[in-house]
Amino acid sequence: MASYNYTLPEDLNSKFERVKLIYQYCRDKYKYHFDKCLLTSDYEEFESLETKYKLYQYFAERAHNLLFNLKFPKQFGTVPDWLKLEYKYCLLHKKEQKAKRKKEFEKNYRVQVHFMQTSLSADYGSFTCEKCNRNFYHSPSTILLGKALLYKTCCGYCVNDMLSISGQKQLFF
Question: What is the signed CA dihedral for 83, 85, 90, 95, rounded to 10 degrees?
Answer without folding.
Answer: 150
